[in-house]
Write a structure and sequence with these properties.
The protein has about 130 residues and is mainly beta. Helices cover about 10% and strands about 50% of the residues. It has two helices and eight strands; from the N terminus they run E-H-E-E-E-E-E-E-E-H. The longest helix is centred in the N-terminal third of the chain and has 7 residues.
């Protein structure tokens, strides 16, 4: 059963973090102002003028007040010699809001329980006498 545990990654080493993750990977993050959240990696961007950064998406939620679907996107931006700053962008049909939700305190890569090919090709085996 080894290999099914989340793999902790160093939230302060942006280069290594971006190198270890790929789009569609699932991760569990915690920030200084947000409890644990399961996200999907949307993009890993190589170092730019601001350093490497990571774009994560959270599952959509329905807000009962407006009956709208909200989609959150988290941009983890590297800062020299410190934890990555996390900006949350919440998108609705009519608006996008942004706020800083602190620093990335933990991040863990969640294992895949199946390969992409297994996700799309399910086989059913039935005995001939059934």
């Amino acid at each position: 059963m080894s290999g099914y545990a989340p793999t902790p990654l160093n939230p302060r080493d942006a280069d290594s973090l971006v190198a270890h993750l790929s789009p569609s990977d699932c991760v569990r993050i915690t920030t200084t102002e947000l409890p644990r959240t399961i996200c999907t990696v949307k993009a890993t961007n190589a170092p730019t003028r601001c350093g490497p950064h990571l774009v994560l998406t959270a599952p959509p939620i329905t807000t009962t007040a407006q009956d709208e679907i909200q989609q959150a996107t988290y941009h983890c931006i590297s800062q020299p010699d410190s934890a990555m700053t996390v900006l949350e962008y919440t998108h609705t049909a009519t608006d996008t809001t942004a706020r800083c939700i602190g620093s990335l305190t933990t991040i863990a890569h969640l294992p895949r329980f199946s390969t992409p090919a297994e996700d799309t090709a399910a086989t059913v085996e039935v005995a001939a006498n059934e």
